Predict the 3D structure of the following.
Amino acid sequence: MKLKNFIQLALLASVIMFTAPSCVKEGPMGPAGDNGTDGTNGTDGAAGSVTCLACHSGTNMAKKASEFAMSAHSSGAIAVDYAGGRAGCARCHSHEGFVQFVELGINDLPVANPSAWECSTCHGIHETFEGVDYALRINAPVVPVAAANGVMDLKGSNNLCGTCHQSRSAEPGTDKPGANYTMSVRTYPHYSAQSNVVFGNGFAEIPGSVAYPTKGTSAHLTMTGGSCVGCHMGTFTAKQGGHSYIPSLKACNDCHGGTPGTNYNYGGIQTDTQGKLDQLRDKLLALGVITKTTVDGVDSYSPKAGSVPMVQAQAVYNYFGIKYDRSLGVHNPKYVKALLVNTLEALNK
Ligand code: HEC
Ligand code: HEC
Ligand code: HEC
Ligand code: HEC
Ligand code: HEC
Ligand code: HEC
C-alpha cells in the first residue's frame, strides 16, 4: 500500500473509532431530561493530514534518500565487510546488529548476512506522531561500551549517533592503574571516539598547564543547533548536511555570525591540531612506543605491544583517539587543546 493511502486510511480508522456507538448491553431507556444550554464553539483542530505530511510529503522522503546515498553509512564499505557480522562488532557495524542491540538489548550475536544502514536502521516506530517524532530507535543518553567512561547525554536525537560513535575502551590509567601499563597493538579508543570528544570525557586527562573543561558543557554540545545533528545534519545546502552527514558549513556560519568562514578550519583550529598531533607522533616514535609502516608510499602508525611507563601509554591512547576522531579539534576545541598541550608537556618533561 502507498504510504499516502495508508495515512488516509489510518486517519479514517481513527475517526470511525471515536464516533462509532458503543456495543455495551443497555437497560430500558429512562424519561428524557430538559435540553442543556449550548456549549461554546471549540477551536479548530489541526488538519488531520498536515502533521503526517510535514515529513511524508511527496518528495521529502525521496530527497532524504538521495542525500543518504552520499553517506558512507549507505555503502557500509568498511563497516559491513569487515565487522558487520562479527559478534561484538555488529552492534555498530551492520543494520541487523544495531537493530538487535537496540530492540533486544543483545550485543554479541553474530549476524549471518550483514547489510549496510537503511532508513529503518535509525528510524523505527512512531510513538506520538507529532512533528518532533522522528521515530528514532534510540534517543536516551549513551550507555558507554567502556563502563568506566560514564553515561553521556548528547541531547535527544544525538544519542542515536553516540550509541555507535563512542570509545570502546577506557584510557590506560583508568583501565589498569599503576606505574607501568602493558600496551597491545590496539591501545586506543577505536576509530569512533567522536562522542567522547564532543562530551569531553574518557581520554587520559594528564595534568598540565591547560585546565580541562567541565564534562558535558561545551557550546558545541549544549547549544540549540549544536551537537552531532546540528553540525552534520543541518538543512541540506551546497551538498552538505541533511542525511549526507557531511558537516554543514552553513550551520557553522549561521551560529558563529560575523564574516562567514569558507571551510571548517575556523581560526586555523584544524591546522593547529594537526601540527600538535604531528609533534606528538614524532615524540612517540622517538620513544619507540609506536611503529611506522609504509605501504605504497603511505605511512601508517600503530601502538607497539609491551610494557611502558603509564604516561606514555596514555599519550599513545590520546594520540590515536584524537587522530581517529577526524574533526581535528572542531568537535571540542578546548578539550582537544588541553589534551594535546598537556600530553606533550608530560612527555617533554
Ligand atoms: C517528524 C517527521 C514525521 C512525521 C510528522 C510523521 N512521520 Fe511517519 N515516518 C517518519 C520517518 C523518518 C519514517 C521512517 C522512514 C522509513 O522507514 O522509510 C516514518 C515511517 C512511517 C511509517 C512506516 C513506513 C514504512 O515503510 O515502514 C508509517 C506507516 C508512518 N510513518 C505513518 C505516519 C503517520 C500516519 C503520520 C501522521 C499521523 C506520520 N507518520 C508522521 C517521519 C515522520
Ligand atoms: C561501539 C560501536 C562500535 C563497535 C562495538 C565496533 N566498532 Fe568499529 N567503528 C565504529 C564506528 C562508529 C566507526 C566509524 C568511525 C568513523 O568513520 O570515523 C568504526 C570504524 C571501524 C573500522 C574502520 C577504520 C578505518 O579504516 O577507517 C574498522 C576496521 C573497525 N571499526 C573494526 C571493528 C571491529 C573488528 C570491531 C569488533 C571487534 C568493531 N569495529 C567494533 C564503531 C564500533
Ligand atoms: C544514521 C541514522 C539515520 C538514517 C540511516 C536515516 N535517518 Fe532520517 N533522521 C535521522 C535523525 C537523527 C533525524 C532527526 C534530525 C533532527 O533531530 O533534526 C532524522 C530525520 C528524518 C526526517 C524528518 C526531518 C525532515 O527534514 O523531514 C525524515 C523525513 C527522515 N529522517 C527520513 C529518512 C529516510 C527516508 C531515510 C532513508 C533514506 C533516513 N531518514 C535514514 C537519522 C537517520
Ligand atoms: C549503527 C551505528 C551508527 C549509527 C547509529 C550512526 N553511525 Fe555514523 N558511522 C558508523 C560507521 C560504522 C561508520 C563508518 C562507515 C564506513 O566507513 O563504512 C560511520 C560513518 C559516519 C561518518 C563518516 C561518513 C562518511 O561519509 O565518510 C559520519 C560523519 C557519521 N558516521 C556521522 C553520524 C551521525 C551524525 C550519526 C547520527 C545522526 C551517525 N553517524 C549514526 C556507525 C553509525
Ligand atoms: C561543531 C560542529 C560539529 C559537531 C557538534 C559534531 N561534528 Fe563531527 N565533524 C565536524 C567537522 C567540521 C568534522 C571534520 C570534517 C572534515 O574536516 O572534513 C567532523 C568530523 C566527523 C567525523 C569524521 C568524518 C569524516 O568524513 O572524516 C565523524 C564520524 C563525526 N564528525 C561524527 C560526529 C558525531 C557522532 C558527533 C556527535 C557526538 C559530531 N560529529 C559532532 C563538525 C561537528
Ligand atoms: C550551535 C552553535 C554553533 C555551531 C553550529 C558551531 N559553533 Fe563553533 N562555537 C560556538 C560557540 C558559542 C563557541 C564559543 C565556545 C566557547 O568559547 O566555549 C564556538 C567555538 C568554536 C571554535 C573555537 C574558537 C576559539 O577561539 O576558541 C571553533 C574553532 C569553532 N567553534 C568552529 C566551528 C565549526 C568549524 C563549526 C561547523 C562545523 C561550528 N563551530 C559550529 C557555537 C557554534
Notes: The radius of gyration is 26 Å. The pocket of heme C (ligand 4) is lined by residues 71-73, 76-79, 92-93, 98, 122, 160-161, 163-165, 228-229, 232, 245 (CB under 6 Å). Residues 6 and 12 are 10 Å apart (CA to CA). The chain is about 40% helix and 5% strand.
